[in-house]
Amino acid sequence: MKTTLLLLALANAALAAPTMTESITPEEIAARQKAPSPLAAIPQPAASTETGTVVHPEEQSIIKQSDILNDGQHWTLVPKGAVLHIPPAFTTRVGAKPVGTLLPWVEFLTVNRNWLFTEEVNIDNASGKTPLPPSRLEAWQKLKKVVVAVHLGGPISVRTQPPANSDPVASTR
Prior knowledge:
Blueprint: H1 2-15, H2 26-34, E1 66-70, E2 74-79, E3 83-85, E4 101-102, H3 105-111, E5 116-120, H4 123-127, H5 134-143, E6 146-151, E7 154-155, H6 168-171
């Protein structure tokens, strides 16, 4: 019984309203409002001398940098160089004009698994440092599907020629 009363007393004290501190006077509020803001101490960036207009390069376009895969009802974009093999029966489905609904790569692949095949490549294969194994190239001939290079599930272009410059920074541009 004593334990119950002790617990109730502790619970009552814990659930009680917090004690009030001294109230702030209107003069103190006014003084705090007139004080400089702490944000004013942060240095501001220098004013730009440019006019602020954004210039977009005319020749760059996501469509121009991509191959279009189309099944007649849906289409998607993959980077140029991601399509590794096209059987003659599917030449009309690669590089065609977009018709229908644009789908993300994963959804398009799911809908068109019957004629699309993905080949997982590593970064060395994609950059051209390591060529794709000839056994894979032969297997694609027998597959009769469009083969798209992917890395971690997403389409990636594959450089077929090794880079002329061995400098990795220069070869990415």
